[in-house]
Amino acid sequence: MENKRWYDKDPILKEALELLRLSSPDEKEQAKDFILQLQEQVAGEVIERIYEIITQYQGKGNRWYDDDPVMIKAIELLRLADPKTQRKAALKLLLALEEKGG
């Protein structure tokens, strides 16, 4: 069985991130901007931790977003948000990606 990722617990969040992973570079750009808006709801010390993670993984990790420092930041913001914020963001992201795709 595959290791559980932090977003596997919530089916909506999981679907949103899977869709994002498969989306076009253009859609990823728009999604990043959208997710980065979460920054206002996340504490300063969390932001600092995110920069450490970017430094640690950028270009070295094997996750689909590890080559893009802004996407790392966006995904980490989402990961560190509270579950209610994660779900709201995931629903908006799903809607946005589905509008683009269909």
Descriptive report:
The chain has 102 residues and is an all-alpha fold. The chain has helices spanning 11-22, 25-36, 44-57, 69-80, 83-101. The longest helix is centred in the last third of the chain and has 19 residues, at 83-101. The chain is globular. The mean pLDDT is 87.
Portion in beta strands: under 5%
Rg value: 13 Å
Average pLDDT, all residues: 87
How do the helices and strands follow one another from N- to C-terminus?
HHHHH
Low-confidence runs: none
Which secondary structure elements does this structure contain, and how are they paired or packed?
Blueprint: H1 11-22, H2 25-36, H3 44-57, H4 69-80, H5 83-101
Helix pairs in contact: 1-5, 2-4, 2-5, 3-4
Summarize, please:
This protein is mainly α and 102 residues long. 68% of the residues lie in helices and 0% in strands.
